[in-house]
Design a protein that fits this description.
Nuclear Transport Factor 2, Chain: A, alpha+beta, 10 strands, 6 helices, about 260 residues, five-stranded mixed β-sheet
Length: about 260
């Protein structure tokens, strides 16, 4: 396990959940902290400007890091947040870029409301949590890359079965169960078009992509998290956030 994983955990659990905002962001970030969560400005002071009032507004903060893995300087993290005894519940997916010492230099995220009853019946935060580090990372990333290119971007939906297990476990709030539910969603207006894959990272059997799709007149930043086994995608989580107008950004934007 790398130092980057520890730093990401610390900024979440000691900083945001524990309320030690200044100490956590200062010790876990590097010579710069470029921010792509559009409500948060760059740098340590931008982080503090957002999260100090956040902590004050939300005195009870329960945060669970559900999944986390590293790919060289990249750290992917997904967390479940319950604020003020469940008054608000969120799923976040985050991507961090770190320096050689594991200090955080850049951050991207999507934040979505936690939905209790999903279309598939599987929980948004449930499912496999531990990475199988003995799985073939290169093969897992290659499979997801080709699925994203051929099916998501090029729209060759006849190839869905080449990539998805028949009994794929679906955790997205809006996609129905198994590969038929996923294929029907991919063909729908709700899915729209997958316009750009910004980054793909993976470790073992887990692979995450971060990109942009366009659906029903909206630009959407989206993380897709996949688990691969026996040459097929067997589990899928999706977390997405509508991209706000440029004038509402506090930094350079989602990408």
């Amino acid at each position: 396990m790398g130092k980057g994983l520890d730093n990401v955990r610390d900024i979440y659990l000691d900083g945001i959940a524990g309320g030690n905002i200044r100490e956590a962001v200062t010790k876990n970030t590097g010579h710069r902290y470029t921010q792509h969560s559009t409500g948060v400005a760059d740098g340590v002071e931008g982080f503090l400007e957002f999260f100090v009032p956040f902590v004050q507004r939300n005195p009870k903060r329960e945060i669970e890091i559900v999944r986390i893995f590293e790919d060289g300087p990249w750290v992917f993290c997904s967390a479940f947040q319950s604020l003020n005894n469940g008054e608000a519940k969120w799923i976040t997916m985050d991507l961090f870029y770190t320096d050689p010492d594991g200090l955080i230099l850049e951050h991207w995220d999507t934040i979505a409301p936690y939905v209790e009853e999903t279309a598939s019946g599987a929980g948004m935060a449930s499912g496999t949590k531990e990475v199988d580090i003995n799985a073939d990372t290169v093969a897992s990333k290659s499979l997801v890359l080709e699925f994203t290119k051929q099916v998501r971007q090029e729209g060759d939906f006849d190839k869905v079965s080449d990539f998805l297990a028949d009994d794929i476990i679906q955790h997205s709030a809006t996609i129905a169960a198994d590969h038929v539910g996923f294929e029907n969603w991919l063909r729908s207006d709700e899915a729209g078009s997958y316009e750009m894959m910004f980054q793909l990272v993976g470790q073992g059997d887990f692979v995450a992509t971060y990109g942009k799709r366009y659906a029903r007149g909206k630009d959407i930043a989206v993380f897709d998290l996949y688990r691969v086994a026996h040459g097929k995608i067997v589990e899928h989580w999706m977390n997405e956030e509508e991209i706000s107008p440029r004038e509402a950004w506090g930094n350079s934007g989602k990408f």
